[in-house]
Fold each of these.
Amino acid sequence: MSNPSQTRALWVAVAGVPLLFAAIAALQVKIDAGTRAYTPESEELLLRSGTALKKMSLGYDSLLADIYWTRAVQYYGNRAGIDGAKFDLLWPLLDIATTLDPKLIIAYRFGAIFLSEPPPAGAGRPDLAIELVKRGIAENPEQWHLNADLGFLYYWRMKDYPNAAAAYLDGSKNPKAPVWLKLMAARITEKGGSLETSRMIWSQIYETSQDKIVREKAMETLRGLRAQEDEAQLDQLAQEYQNRFGHFPASASDLRTGGLLREIPEDPAGNPYVFGKDGKSRLDPRSPIVIPPPLSPPPEATN
Amino acid sequence: MSATVGPVAINTFREAVRDRVLYNLVLFALLMIGAAILVGEISIGIERLVIINLGLTAISVFGLVMAIFIGVGLVYKEIEKRTLYSLLAKPIRRWEFLVGKYAGLLLTLAVNTAFMTLGLAAALFYVGWRFERSDTSILVAIYFILLEFALVTALALFFSCFTTPMLSTLYTLGIYITGVFADDIRAVGDFTRNPAVLGVTRAIYYVVPNFHNFNAISMAAHGNAIPFTLFWQNTLYAALYVAVLLLAASAVFSRRNLK
């Protein structure tokens, strides 16, 4: 049974502790406001050596790798899409995460995307992305997905079709690899840089990836590639229209009234294509579709 | 095994429970709940990996802290409180007292680890709504962590037989850290190619307990199978090392002047 003084002490604590915490929080806000002025804006990585961190982790390197991977994700997420944003610490963070845990497959795969995407979506460093994925393949030779990622990087980001074909071919030697890797190698050797090949690669990425973000990106690119294909066909029809009527069509309706089209074509987002004075078809400015940058012409087919 | 060891062990366990040692489970539960809810929001594709890594790391760290800080006081506390004298007046030999104390703390750690394992399993189920066959590696990793506790507890008990808790903590921690770096110490000797240095580093490598052997956290997190050979080799290694330490501790304690 508690006496009155104990009860009083309890009530003082119940009321006093939250009040004191509120005062502490308010004081911290003041301190933050005062110190922010002379806190350097640039972030730093105190330790850049993954090997040193691995030693210092006393065997808990796996958890540390997860922490560094999460830091890399946060670092990328805070910068992606912002014009002029720098990604200076992205590579060191990924380097540390994969040195601490060389089996952290997700860090190689997504890290390569973060590094290779052109600014402002990413660091615009496909060379580092390739280095990262190559390191992943060396540490995890059983992971054919990494070979496919390497092939994609060479194909899409570097336009280096011989190396892209070689990467897919290497991956196809893995007994667990699906047949399409070998087909892809043959296809790139024969028709690298073509729209069909690009569509095939992105379709495979869409079908084989489990990740929502990657699938969305693949779908977005596939829609862009379809629009690119539509534009190429519309340009041909516009040229034919010009041959018949002596001037380029002002809109897709002109092509229909001229008997060259049955229906007015729409891009994958449902917007009709528009025509410039030069007779070239374009996406409607309101369309959310993004046409990927053109690839280099296909290399000479090898026997 | 002597019949007096059991009661000492049970009483050591009860004492630990009375001292609210198992309260650390609350912290562990909060850690697991927090990780299970938050990781998916702040990272990509590593929900399961983080739960396993964090769970196993927490089991290991919490257990090591308990093994060291309780282990170093096992004998010292009994002498300080003068309860040892009344105990030794009974038909119990000093080595039986030591082994009983050791078994009691190990039982406490095992019970603590068992509850944490349940917490880890619950968090793992929460993030995936299923268990995978490869999750058995997690149980093997936890068994290795228990072997590590057995070794550290024996080290702490050994030092507590002849020195103060503060120094015992320092010595146990020192040997633990040396044991974690055992591979690197040997590598230094191999690198220098100096026969004297090589001899010293090799001696350290074989004398200090090689805690690197017991680290299977990464393998378990990635769902890799842990070879059965490693299972029995680690068990034997820990058993031999614990036997050495308990023998040495008994020898020191039986010669200690308690007057």
Note: Chain B has one domain: 5-255.
Amino acid sequence: MRNALIDELTMLAEADPRVVLIVNDVGFSVVEGFQARHTDRFINAGVAEANMIGMAAGLALTGHRVFVYAIAPFTTYRVIEQIRLDLCRSRLPVTLVGLGGGFTYGQLGTTHHATEDIAMLRALPNMQVLAPCDAFEARSLMPHLGTGDGPVYLRLEKAGEIAVHASKPDVAPGRGVRVRWGADVTLVACGTMVQVALAAAERLASQGVDAGVISAVSIKPLDSVLLDELRARPVVTVEEHSVIGGLGGALAEAAADAGAPAPRLRIGVPDRYAEVGGDQAYLRSLMGLTPEGIAERVASVFERAA
Amino acid sequence: MTALEAMVSLEERARLVRRYALEATARTRASHVGSALSAADLLVAIYFAAMRDAVDGPLGDHCILSKGHAAVALYAVLRQRDLISEGDLDHFYENGSRLAGHPEPGVPGVVFGSGSLGHGLSVANGLALGKRLAGSEGHTWVVMSDGECEEGSTWEAAMFAARHELARVTAVIDRNGMQGMGDTDAVMALEPLAEKWHAFGWRTVEVDGHDLAAICAVVRPSADVCGPPTAVIARTVKGRGVSFMEGDNDWHYRSANPGELARALADLEPGVA
């Protein structure tokens, strides 16, 4: 996803002289191509994120199409007030690219885990929150970045994830995509948890549960199709994010407002820190975010219901 | 600016700004009149002597009042620039008014909303970079409070502006020596403030922040595209222009009662009372 985004951005900058890329002293072996081709429109803002976001706002006020590229905690938690006042309040179309969503950088410790970022940014007026599951989805979103009426938080993970799609799907703000049909239950996931949800669906199939999967790439605005899904069959949300305020929270709120059945389960990071290091696979396992863990919880709901 | 507007002296403009700040805060019991009186001359010099009518639009000249708590002074200036109406001024601080206690974006003439300290200079950096990328000669001024120099983000922005040689950024620091709860020196080690800005790579000048001619001389737009940005340390008096408010930090939060307002206005315009 990460490399796909920078490829797309480098091409976009050829066609659109307003494109500016800002990093906070990261991007080794990723951003150099952009930097070499568009030297004056590549800015290393240094380890100074408050200035980075304010500066991005100023550039946007002069009509530039600004992309900020940083590890997720440092372009969300670190600068939440700058995002609120400098970007959201003025409806500036700046794209915040957060790398390392969830436990992507698990071994680096809690400082580098991004598991409450969606909740924080989703609460801000005028902000969109998008979490693609693979490079094809990320590429599909490009035309929607920096062209709307407000900022976008694009939550990525890193490079080398398995592709869910075979080509660019028709996803956009407010529109996700079904990646597996299932009659009994639908797993609504975002980011690379879509892959994990697909694997969980396979396991469930072997247990006689027909589970579908939707990639909910647009967490804000939320895809209204998800409300239809809630009315059609049980829904379980799956995300590498706190169970508070993320995809599951968003869908539960929307269900309450619409009088639709609530998601049957919200599977995510429990309300606690990892408190240990470990790679993404280890920390997912610790938090129950594996195909086995998800399948087990989903199956238990059906057993109780039966 | 029309020819008629140009005929009004800067001193008279500053007096009108102070008059509005006093009346509006007294009427609404809003805070920060002392801060507005402190910054009045700085805003008048920038808006009426430095900013150029012909260099306008998104890539033109901009001023950010980063010390947004002096909003009443800014509103009075925007009125004199005919960007907002007398009716707007009349409804300052009222329910539903677009003129709030701190400037909101969307008020004509407010390029960037402020009110939380330590934001304006970073936004000015982006404005200046954007103008330079687009080949514009637009200059960007930021009026900051001295207390604002306690924000870490101020120094992030200072380092960035110097590294990128944003010659067309001028930070004007309203150095009245007071902040919400007391003297700045009693709260944080701000001094030596000019040396700090200098050490951060800024061209630094100190000026009497109530001498309009002196201020005008140091806030001119830069002819240089690249070079050190300019920090103007403006020595000011909080509550300036009203004898019983000058140097009395109560007026950071207090507003004048009717008797005090009458005395303050008499102070402001001797001979008129």
Note: DSSP finds eleven helices and seven strands in chain B.
